[in-house]
Structures
1.
Amino acid sequence: MKAETPKDSLNSSRPAESGDPVVRLTDFGVRYPDFRVGPLNVALRPGERIALVGANGAGKSTTLRSIAGRMPDYTGTIEFRGEDLRNQLPWARASVGFLPERLLGYGWMSVADHLGFLSNFFPGWDADYTTTLMGRLQLPPKSRVGTLSKGMAVKLSLVAAEAARPPVLILDEPTSGIDPVMRGEILEVIGECAPEGSDRLVLYSSHILEDVEKLADRVLLMADGRIITDESAAALRGVHPDQSLSRILYRHLRRAQTPSHDSTTDDLTRPIPAEGDSE
Amino acid sequence: MNTQHPTERALKALIAVELLKHRKSLAIQLLSVAVVVGGGLLLGLLGTGFAAFALLAVGFAAVLSVPMGIFLDKVEGTMELLTSLPIPDSTLVAGRLIPMATLAVVTAALSAIAAAISLPEQVAISAHWVAVAAFASVWIGATALGSALIAVALRFRASDLMGRVLVIGMIVGWALLSALDRIFGDPLDVLQGILADPRAPWLASIGYVVVCAVTVVGSWFLARDGYRRFRPDPASMER
């Protein structure tokens, strides 16, 4: 068991401290030729809606893919429901709905065919629920996958990830690059899929801080491959009651990207200097 | 309620989608075979060169279509989709190789029959079943092995593949063909000589079984290794 760090002590205000973690990362890391993600140590509990926030290249997608069981080349351990994820692959993938950054599918298939194809691989696939979700998101079943707009492609990926009602839903940039109306629809459906008080874990990355504000009850801020802040949304708002959460996150993201900034000592509960002040 | 075993259901879905994916190339191959047969029937007008060329085109199409399809999988992201499904690698590999082999057999058999009809002198054995076996083994072997090698190569970037594997393969292949040609003479003459031997059907049968067994078993392990090691190109993806 790792000794509690000062940063861990900040997490006491998280809403879902009770209950065993459904996902736990221990010294998790991925090495690229010119970059390293990790080591990350974090526990994710049922019922949490967690936003992974960070600049491009911070390591968000790598982390999400690995937790989703789609990227096995990592160091350290990812525990899923108390057991090493590596030992549960490939079957654990059926319990983790994953929305990738771009739609993965055969361009020549229709939307309905695509979902029908995927239904063969997920034992818990709910055809009625799939139809409901398609209607809710106004997905045209006869359109070809290859001709879908970015927004429609995200909607299709969301339906595919959610159709089996997996206990863990991982969404990689679900709202980036799409218009505000579709963004709103997608966020609403995500919220309906995992309402407050449910036992499902939703972990999503986003650059759009307003979306983080709408959906997240816990925020993981990543920079340079590490989690520099892990805090509940409520605690952040409590420390800075005069500012919106997106404003708070924006300023901390800027601070994290300052070359002289020491991310190992970052602390979101510390008052933020006003813009223009030296830190 | 679906009572199929999950693996059986997954395998059927993979085979169906592979056959559907290659339906256009299969149609082109069948059309090519029809052209070969038609050309054969019109040999008096068009000459054997045309029919031989068309037959070669059919063979190349059959050999190249599946590996090209796997490359397309990588480009379109469907390879990432397939490797993200909750199925074992062995199911995924079987789901690709079975339809490949099926397509190869159909094309090879039709091409062999077309060859026997249109080029009896060149093939020298009319519609003898050995011709079918020889063509089928070559096509199955080339297709399966090519696909497996491409699957293994997926762990490299396309530029690596083009720059190293392809160039090395072409040089080695050219060198081997040149050496064989110098040692044994014209391959067609050698083939005709072998087929004229009364032991040819037996030797061809054994050769067919050995080639098929080695290529299928080799392809299985190579492809399984390739899919297991496959991962998205880190250089091209958002971290």
2.
Amino acid sequence: MLRVDLGGHIGQLRLEARFDTSRGPVVLTGPNGSGKTSLLLMILGVIAPERGEVSLDGTSLFDAQREVNVAVEQRAIGYVPQHYGLFPHLTAAQNVEFALACHEAAPPRAERRERALSLLAELGLAPYAEQRPHALSAGERQRVALARAFASAPRALLLDEPFAALDVGTRRQVRVFLRDYLERLALPTVVVSHDAEDARAVGRHIAVLEAGRVVQSGSWEELAADPASAFVRELTS
Amino acid sequence: MAPAPRFSRITLALGALGSALVVFLLLPIVGLVSGTSFADARAGLRHPLVAPALELSLVTTALSVTLVVVLGTPLAWLVARTPGRAARWLESSLKLPVVLPPAVAGLGLLLAFGRASALGGLLARFGLSVPFTTAAVVLAQVFVAAPFYVEAAIAAFRRLDTSLLVIARTLGASPVRVLFRVALPLAAPGLLSGAALCWARALGEFGATLMFAGSLAGRTQTLPLAIYAALESDLRAARSLSLVLVVVAFALLVAVQSAERASTRSGAEHD
Amino acid sequence: MSLRSARRALLLCCFVTLAASGGCGTKPKAGAHPELTVFAAASLREVFTALARRFEALRPGTHVVLSFAGSQTLRSQIEHGAPADVFASADERHMTALAAEGHVTAPKFFAQNELVVAVSRAGASSVREFRQLPDATRIVLGAPEVPVGEYTRRALEQANADLGADFQARVEAHVVSREPDARQVLAKVALGEVDAGIVYRTDALAAKDKVVIVPMPAAYNVLAKYPVAVTTHAPRAELGRAFVELLFSPEGARVLAESGFLPVTGAKADAR
């Protein structure tokens, strides 16, 4: 379980957030500029919060009071950013191999390659293993990025706007795929999405971020029954 | 963006402005080349100054560029990744050697490493002396040429998509691994063209070398110094020597450019 | 900087460049301020600057423009149409070539220069006279391609007869650089980076607060002869001839002698 309770500044914006993944994947939603991506970066350890705690499965990753701040590369949190962030100089397979090679007990090269290919095949990407990212469609890139994140053996997963770069048709497919996939992984997961329909498809638990603060969290039904702000009302209507 | 019509007025105007510069830049070189007959060029190549000077130039510039890349890459990385005024100041001051007249740069090097300097005195205690040695040639080249590489490398590192560096770390890559497996390959085209420019500047270096290293065939007389020496006695020989310099430089720059293109292709376009 | 001000700055640059390039090509204006252009070898800098001031004083309103460079460079510039009225060379060869090509007429020798050893303060204790030159740790000479280097080579060869057959070799064993002109040789001695260098007397005198001058015996010294001539296409031929006359006048001789130049001896003052 990923437990987040932190505060800090991003420029002028004061960020305060508190939620956990005890009830399954959390969908973080909110208007543009509400601090969603910054919050992810704080959980990842890229940006240091000013107060609070972040813990994963009971291990403290960040604790302002006890001065714990685990380095980004040691947090084991998989991250798929908005445009998927594939390394453009590497093929799909090499992108995945990169993640496999980062382990302390990295398997030998040949084995890494084999594992990378089987991970890609699992996501239906076998034909694209030797392609570079620019030759892939947005949907294919997303799946490569997921395979890569998974190859790093994460103990939690953060997805930033996984649907934003997709066209409408692909979007519908990906929603179903992603929901099933996340369910199968059973990892603590946070998904950022500004789109209500997308958000609803992936997670049962919603946290609404406005101007840096979680204004409301709960299930869709709870949010719809008693919207705490105009944004939430519009989101659930 | 739709492609512009082939001969729109603006294209013609831009073409005219551009070709004016091309003509201006190439005319002196064409003058050097066209005025030199094949026989002259061959005689020039056999000129007793050529072989040692060419060899010395190639060896010293190779050393200089290696030194600049080894020391300049980490520096550029730090400057590019450090926010704040101090890094900016450092970046600006690193460009100073470019504005110094080369002879003044040479004088500065003499004042820093020469007999009268504290450093020179210290070295002398170990029986070492830098001025008028091949090492001085390399130092002079490094001094005048390093800014070209460092500047290009800083720009290349700044252009990097920093989110890729973050992602690499979330995948468990150590900072060193991020640098060598992600940042350097992605910045490679920019680093390579910076190194090429640095090398070209080192190859043409004259003033600082003359002041700091002197001019002695086989030891400190690089190709530009040999050309200058020949210029005083025999213009034809000087022209042939210049031709050698131009051809060598052109060949190496073309080689670097094609390597750069290859690495850009393999690096692929960003979104 | 806004785009507009950037554009304005760019325009300004263009104008400045145009104005500057236009300025280079302008012909001397007839009338008010006659302008005489003198091309002179680099080693004549101090003395010709003094002579030019003298010339301007004698002819109020006249302005002398001086251009100093290596004789070879000046020769190339004249061959390519540089608007020089007078050319004073440090090397007979270049003047002879220009005369043969018809660029100058009737060159005459107006001064001579002898070689001396310029010794740095640090080297002064080891090199007190010419025969001790090989005792210097580091020596710089002129490159064999340039006049000062050629004269030096001849002088050292001639010194072998007197100072031992290996004298030249012993000197050259300490040579760390062969410089493209005498001023570069002098600069390195003056900076104290080398112990000794062989230069023209006039150069050494110009830096006498920084170097010690050790004379080279006349028996093997080589004299550099300086020819001067008015160019064939001189825009100011009349003024040019007057300037040359000044060089040969008693006053000119005095200024030249003060700078360390030797008078041209014998009847053969004609450079051709």
3.
Amino acid sequence: MKIIFDPRYITNNTVFWIYVVAMILIIIATVIFVIKEVGGKR
Amino acid sequence: MKKNITGILYFYIHFIVEIACFFYLSRVTNGSNVVWLIPFIYDGVAFVPQSIIGYISDKYPKINMAFIGTILMIISYLIFGLTKWSVFISLIIICLGNAFLHVAGAENTLKTSGGRLSPSAIFVAGGSFGVITGKVLAMSSINPLWLLIPIMTIIPFSILADMYIEKDSNTDKFNYVRECLNPYVVILIAFLVVIARGYVGYGIPTSWNKTVIQNIIFFCTMGLGKALGGILSDKIGIRKVAVGSTLLAIPFLCCGNNLMIVSIIGVMFFSMTMSITLGILTSILKENPGLAFGITTIGLFLGTAPIFFIKLTMNINIILIIIVSIICSILLGYVLKGDEKK
């Protein structure tokens, strides 16, 4: 599959921005889970 | 004790999952004007939530993640095959189905492995064979609804794999990391190694790879390398395999741009560390194998995300392969325990 990047997809695409925010929130949640699990055992 | 075949069972499940996903991706992106956005969203929604799904699976092991994943994949294919709804609806659903099934595979193969890496490595390897099969299948005129049949075969295979989970199945025997190290540092190192190798994986110079057959050879070698990484770690020791395969890959990857046989040897060595980073993370997060697996998939996403925005020249990629591989082998050698004779 050929990937063609066009910056217009970023600036004008609501789906893209919802997606970016969701990914950031999940990564933050993962960091919290890791701290909770590792910290709990120390 | 019955012979553990969960790795083989989940090899098949992973194979089917990737066939379904890459058949779908190849079909929806064919002629689409959002060809960049769809693979990018696929990578994120399929990879990143696996940490959350994995954490829930760790806390509530009675939830059947494989069944949920299979149902989601079936729903996605029905929407894709029978309706004219926006592609993003079926895309998000198939990504989540993929994520649930990956978590089920990781949990099952890690918990029943008795501290060995080979079952999870064999499970992971199935994906590479599925990716290329799905891509090749998408070139045909086959109706997508036919893929519901292999997708439904996941259910009996996952039930069979679940029979190997016993009350005391856990990942306590995963002890691959030096005890004196700070667990946060170990997690960070494993995470960085996954990111770095995820990125470098897309920069491997493969000008030889032009035909469908060559592409099939490329993906099959990658799958073979992933499986061998775990199997050899169990036989000769994880540290030897981690450091050795990372360093041995360098000359083959850098000199194989026009030579298929040289290149695929490099790809095979390069793929071997896949299950090793999972083993490192599971050694720290013993009670959370699902979360450990999710960390590696987030790393893979972050490693591959730049390729959607940046294109580097071949020479820069070769320099990156050399530098990143050397750094990764040093870090892996630092984190992993010395190998004991088995």
